[in-house]
Design brief:
167 residues, alpha/beta, 5-stranded mixed β-sheet, 22% strand, globular
């Protein structure tokens, strides 16, 4: 299974691709790529959204994931920030749909629980565990890319649990 994780943001939208290597004796997570779409604060919203869409479409085409995993909307005290984030998230969902990829959505607490074992974990704890789980020499940067990898890992863990329950 190859999963494309997306961590939506108004300045950086992180992405990460993880797959399960089933050729090993025990299935292992395998890191493929990660990064972030950097958006300029100078650009108007439609230009920024078009950039996110174009880059995510190109990345999904290049990496051919089976599924896209994305963080659910969280509630924010700042309505304007939440609306802007929702726009980026909508574009990410549109890109996945236009690539014909199913989408799985996870709450932030579920993502942190799946990766760290604690839903209120700090970003540094998530980064540490993503580094360990993917057996990376260095922590993935920026945090947005690391978060996207965590979202992908969360989906893989969830899918493995669902598969075990079906047996």
């Amino acid at each position: 299974m190859r999963v494309f994780g997306i961590d939506c943001g108004t300045e950086f939208t992180g992405y990460g691709v993880v797959e399960v290597d089933t050729a090993a004796r025990t299935p292992r997570l395998r890191y493929l790529t990660a990064g972030a779409v950097k958006l300029s604060k100078k650009d108007r919203t439609p230009v920024r959204l078009a950039q996110v869409y174009a880059e995510l479409m190109a990345l999904m085409d290049a990496w051919q994931p089976e599924i896209v995993a994305i963080e659910e909307v969280f509630f924010s005290a700042n309505a304007k920030s939440a609306l802007k984030l929702g726009q980026v998230r909508g574009v990410a969902l549109l890109a996945a749909a236009n690539c014909g990829k199913p989408v799985a959505e996870y709450a932030p607490l579920a993502i942190k629980s799946a990766v760290v074992g604690y839903g209120l974990a700090a970003k540094e704890q998530v980064q540490f565990m993503v580094t360990r789980l993917l057996e990376l020499a260095e922590p993935p940067t920026p945090f947005d890319a690391c978060d996207a990898l965590a979202i992908a890992i969360c989906h893989i863990h969830n899918a493995q649990t669902q598969e075990a329950l079906r047996r």
